[in-house]
Amino acid sequence: MIRIPHRAIVFVGDGRKALFLRNEGNERSPNLKIEAVFEEENPPAHSQGSDRPGRVSKGSHSGQRSAVAMTDWHELEEGRFARQVAAAAERLLRSEHATSLIVVAPPRTLAELRSVFHDDVRRRIVGELDKDLTKHPVSDIEKHLLDAG
Fold it and tell me: Does any domain span residue 23?
């Protein structure tokens, strides 16, 4: 069970959507209320690029050429979105004087967030859950948090 202190912020997100919820209940009986929602359009990488990857010559006289890796626009956008919501988490925690943060995200997003959260935000993290719950209703999110552990 992840303990959610009264007035704690619960972040639920993936690379496209993020919910900031506040616990208006207590640790044993959470009552999560939506504080903010961020949603980003991020189509698959193949629909974001326009051309085939280029080729690079290895030497002026050798005639050898090699392919350049295709840019993963989808992954770049997910990284940008993680930085955006990490900054929003910092603003929310500071403006609301919240002392606790619970982070719920799929493993890849969780790792990305860990690398971009400000030190002040990291110190306030009291729980993490590596699941994608962004498409779940708030009542299901509460249930998953209570059942975790």
Answer: yes
Domain count, the chain: 1
What is the average pLDDT score of the chain?
82
Summarize pLDDT for 65-76 with one digit per residue, the tens: 555 555 555 566
Could you tell me the residue range of the domain that residue 116 belongs to?
1-7+18-30+79-93+107-125+135-149
This model's pTM is above 0.85: no
Q: Does the residue 48 lie in any domain? A: no
The four Cα atoms 46, 49, 51, 56 give a dihedral, to 10 degrees, of -100
Q: Is residue 111 part of a domain?
A: yes
How far is it, in rounded angstroms, from Cα 134 to Cα 49?
27
The model's pLDDT over 83-97, given as tens digits with 9 standing for 90+, comes to: 999 999 999 888 877
